[in-house]
Amino acid sequence: MNKLAIMDIGSNSIKMILVDYRRDKSFRIIDELKETVRLGEGMHKNSYLKEDRIQKALQTLTLFKNLCDAVEVDEIIAVATAAVREAANQQKFLDRVYKQTGLEIRVLAGKEEAYYDYKGVVNSFDLDSGLIMDVGGGSVELVLMEDRMVKKSVSLPFGALTITEKFELYDENNRDKDIKKHLHQEFSKLEWLKNLKNIPLIGVGGTIRNIAKIWQRKNNYSLEILHYYNLNAENVNSVYKKVSKKSIEERKEIPGLSSKRADIFIGASGLVNYLMDFTGIENLIISGKGIREGLVYDFLLNDKLPVADVLDYSIKNLLHNFDLNEKHAARVNELNKNIFYQLESEFSFAFDEFPDRISRIIKTAALLHDVGTNINYYDHHEHSFYVILNADLYGLTHRELLLAAYISASHRHNKYSLHKYNLNRKSFKDIISRKGNDKELIRKSGIILEISESLDLNRKGLVQRVEVESKVDHILFKVYSSYDLRLEIEDAMEAADGFESLFGKELKFKLLDV
Amino acid sequence: MNKLAIMDIGSNSIKMILVDYRRDKSFRIIDELKETVRLGEGMHKNSYLKEDRIQKALQTLTLFKNLCDAVEVDEIIAVATAAVREAANQQKFLDRVYKQTGLEIRVLAGKEEAYYDYKGVVNSFDLDSGLIMDVGGGSVELVLMEDRMVKKSVSLPFGALTITEKFELYDENNRDKDIKKHLHQEFSKLEWLKNLKNIPLIGVGGTIRNIAKIWQRKNNYSLEILHYYNLNAENVNSVYKKVSKKSIEERKEIPGLSSKRADIFIGASGLVNYLMDFTGIENLIISGKGIREGLVYDFLLNDKLPVADVLDYSIKNLLHNFDLNEKHAARVNELNKNIFYQLESEFSFAFDEFPDRISRIIKTAALLHDVGTNINYYDHHEHSFYVILNADLYGLTHRELLLAAYISASHRHNKYSLHKYNLNRKSFKDIISRKGNDKELIRKSGIILEISESLDLNRKGLVQRVEVESKVDHILFKVYSSYDLRLEIEDAMEAADGFESLFGKELKFKLLDV
């Protein structure tokens, strides 16, 4: 296990994340520090970093560097963005940092900043295309992603703070029309921003996450997850209109809005609102990952290509971090997939008619069915539910994530009493249904997963293949193996009552020699 | 990391747990297997293990042994209890097992069985004294523990199944008086069972856990934890009376009662009820740990003495399993404890008047404040809440555990909005109060923990000591260090608003050279 530190010197704050990583490129964030240094303060006057802000930055970077030494970090990547980039006294600042701390700061050009945003996004979403937007205080990065590659990118020289100052938005917003006009003018300078209607806007950074948080709170959204949360243009507009009507003191009381951001939030949400308005983009997807994660991926993944499958990558990450039996997980996944698709006709709906990507859901549930054992072996199916929902899994919508968590939790219920995460008890009914296809998918997939795990009871992968035959009154599982698997089958038969009540047919096994 | 397998060949089932352990004696259970072999079936007729049951046992042990090979277990400990112990064909059985699997089974004498029950219990409770009871099908183990050592022990030659058969309790119970008379007679043979009024009964095994589960469900108990759950004699009696009135089919419908145990549950609960009645013991404490854990501790801990402090041991276990920065945890704990006790006069109650052991609560909260980072760094305080409640922590009552979890979750709230685990949202109000001293303890300790963590921001232990002085309008933290800790103090000052609203006094720091 090695340690990597990423420092990110912005106009408003200096942040550091500490990351444990392994040779196999799995990693976990183990610490984060943030100091509100305001290095960009007053720069609009003369483009100079102010002495007292420099002092504060030096103090902060010294602390961060000490911490890196204390925990024995192997590699430090330190970057600076807008404030240092624009500073007339940039070199002097960098020299002083180096002299005092030994840190070599890399000043990112606007396009590089946009590139690392893209790197953070592309490796934590399964989306092929999108317009990535990172709203900062003094700049906005935009990246047009097509086929998971950068098609166009730009760093605009204005941001939430600039707009707020220009239109005096600290208190109320009486200049909405001017803002709209101004932003439309600015955006129209970029030819490639036109005709993006059919791709989503992917929002990076605290400001955009705040828009989503406000919307989630307003609607009592039942999952407290922002990554991959969706809002449409109307929702964003409604948040912008809402904050526009309020004074700064009133804004501080809005549930979900960080009081530290309340001052620049009209400008910030205005930027997002009018970009959607200008481009005609209908859908905003929130990214919890941005430039710092982009730097982590850039460091870990040698080639410049994005991760091929972000779901597989993040599942592998979790399995490594939790030190689980990956071979067993992989075998259960293979058996499960195999059996599941052979039973498609026993479901009341066709898998491709289900509104979500079933293959990703059942893969996640199967590979991570034991992930909860790290918390406590006993009731580990329930802990798997919690971990699947809360660990950083990428490339699943909230609905898909929740369905996977429920299926995983169902792999070990006693006679279907599943009381803790029972659909009737814990309510996620704004996201999944307590009945119909959702319930059927959870219950039937859960029992298939239970059977699949039983067939690898020996942890040796002794099953060669399973053929499933649907008969009128029973379903026959023909298990091919050159070993005596009577106990595996007996274990699988524990699911018989549940199976019969769900599928309306008896469960039968036949052990066949290969 | 090494692997240990414990196999336990009982009258009803054969079980195996797989345990990862380290040289430092920390461990985690990674798998459990259970086969209902019924090796003791029919033994009351001729004391012989039946051939078909032996076959089943051989098949099961072969599977278990294969699994041990597959996951490369370093050490196997296999024991047999009542059925094999009493069998006339014991040696032949053992020989066949050895020949087929290579496993050397150790047949435990009744007193040895009781001893491992004790080992499991003493190392997972902070109790000095108690009467330990393990109810099996054909035997009951009793251990009188005094000063954490075995004072007396016995294995009684009757159990839940015996009583059920003897009094024909499969359906209803019409012979309550006979049972009482019989059991009182049996118990009175043991002189040392008299006069135990003032110690608790500590119940081991699935049967006794079932009594607790039924009672928890009936009362909608909000925590789904059995270990260290308390019932009084009246509660136990009420469960016994309730099941006594019901037929077997009706019993299967009782929430909390495993349908597999429904047949012998009148006998089982009768045993517990009449032991409490006979001894006058008022309090039953449920143990989630028994013989198998006893064997793990016996293997891991070389000396025969119990763990000195089960809370410290289980916290260390968790920190190791989660691969956390233990030095940082220890330093935050020291700072936190120190500050906390200096602020006692700022609480509206004296610490020793609080109904729980405050020192254990705040130690747990402080040492485990970062434990949730293993699930996800972001919102890790909330994950710490979940992990503290669900990991195996020993030596805390449920109230203490819940208070520790709340305090830990409070170490990183943004401006005290603590919305997820807010006392007003998630309800554990049957266990802790939403107001008064409980709330005060959680909130004030939470902010003290937040300050303590800030003071080790550098992760280097640069603070030599902290002296806290309570003034009329402010509380002064005098931080002694030979280093420049301005940033640490600035970070701690993030808690200033919250501190003031909780303590009614301003928060001030002074950095002093040592």
TrEMBL record, chains A, B:
Q: Its catalytic activity? A: [phosphate](n) + H2O = [phosphate](n-1) + phosphate + H(+)
Read off the InterPro entries from this record: ATPase_NBD, Exopolyphosphatase, GppA/Ppx_hydrolase, Ppx_GppA_C, Ppx_GppA_N, PyroPPase_GppA_Ppx
> Span of the secretion signal?
none
Q: Which GO terms describe its molecular function?
A: exopolyphosphatase activity
Domain of life according to the entry: Bacteria
Question: What EC identifiers does the entry list?
Answer: 3.6.1.11
Gene3D superfamilies given in the database record: 3.30.420.40, Exopolyphosphatase. Domain 2 (3.30.420.150), Hypothetical protein af1432 (1.10.3210.10)
Instruction: Give the UniProt keywords, A-Z.
Output: Hydrolase
Q: Can you give the residue ranges of the Ppx/GppA phosphatase C-terminal domain?
A: 313-432
Every copy of the Ppx/GppA phosphatase N-terminal domain together lies at 19-302
Instruction: Give the enzyme's main class according to its UniProt record, as a single word.
Output: hydrolase
- Any one Gene Ontology biological process term? regulation of transcription by RNA polymerase II
Family listed = Belongs to the GppA/Ppx family.
| Name of the molecule in the record | Exopolyphosphatase
Report the source organism: Halanaerobium congolense
